[in-house]
Amino acid sequence: MNKYLKYIIITLIIILVILGLCLFITKYNKMEETDLQIYCFKTGKADACLVSVNGKHLMIDTGEEDFFPEIVQYFDANGIKELDYLIITHFDKDHVGSAAKIIENYKVYNVLESNYKKESDKYNNYVAALSSKKIEPIVVLDDYEFNLDGLEVVVNGTKTLFDNNESNNSSLITSLSYGSRKFLFMGDAQNARIKEFLKNNKGKYDFIKMPYHGKYMKRIDDLLDAIKPRYALITSSEKEMEDSETINMLKNFGISCYLTREGSVLIKSNGIKIIVEQS
Question: Is 128 in contact with 100 (CB distance < 8 Å)?
C-alpha cells in the first residue's frame, strides 16, 4: 500500500474516533430540559424545594403561609399545574405553612407526612384541605420508596417518639438518586434523629440540604463525615442566620455552601454532572 494512502487512512480513523468520543461526551454530559432540576426557594428561615424531572414534580415542604404567592409565581412561570408528590417533613409552620393553599389550588396526587402531629392553625388548615380534596396522606414510619420517571426517591420516616424536640426529630429525611448522583434533604432533624438515620444510612451524597436551618449540633460532624457531600444548602434569613460553627465545619470539610438568605438556589444534574446556580 502506498505510504501516503496509509497515512490518510490512519488519519481518518483517528478523526472518526475523536468525533465518536465527542458525541459520547456531549450525549452524556449535556444538560437537557428533561434533566433533574431542584429549585430551593428563598423563603427566609423556612423550607420549600421543588424537584422536577421529565415534567414530573415533587415538592419538599412549602414555606410559611404568606410565602404562597411566591410559589404561585414560580409555578405559573414554569407551567406547573400539578404535583406528583408533596412531602411534608414535619408540621412546624415554616414547613407546612403553604401546604393547605397548594393542595387547594393545584392537583396533588400523593402526600407524604411525618408521624408526629402538631396542633396549630396551619396544621388544621392542612388537614382540612386534604379532606376537601379527598386525599389520604401516607404517614411514613420507615422507608417509603418510589420512582419518579427515573428519579429514585427514598423517604425515611421514624416510629420513634423522641423525648426532646419531638416535631423536629420526627422529620422525614428524603434521599434522591439520579444516575450516579445523590441528594439528601434532612428536614429539621436534630441530634437524636440524625443518629438514628446514620445507623442504617451511611452512603455518600453529592448534595445535602442541611438540617434545622444551619443551627450547630454535635451530630452534624458525624453526618458530614459519613455522607461526604460536595455541596450544602442552608435555609436561613438575615434575621435568623445560620450558626458560624456550622459554616466553619462545612469549610473544614471542603464543602461548598449556599445560603438561601442570599438568593434562591437551582441545582441541575444529568445524572453525571451537577451544576449549582444562585440568583
Answer: yes
Grid coordinates given for 212: 434545622
Which ranges of 55-208 would DSSP assign to H, the alpha helix? 68-77, 93-96, 99-105, 121-132, 166-169, 191-200
Q: CB of 169 within 8 A of CB of 156? A: no
DSSP state of 66: G
Q: Which three cell numbers stand for residue 74?
A: 414560580
Contact 94, 46 (CB under 8 A): yes
* Residue 241 DSSP one-character state: P
| C-alpha–C-alpha distance, residues 94 and 123, integer Å | 11
Query: Does residue 236 contact residue 45 with C-beta atoms inside 8 Å?
Result: yes
How many residues does the structure list for the chain? 279
Lookup result for grid cell 450544602? 232
| Section 80-93 average pLDDT | 98
| C-alpha to C-alpha distance for 247 and 224, rounded to whole angstroms | 12
* pLDDT tens digit sequence for 33-42: 559 999 999 9
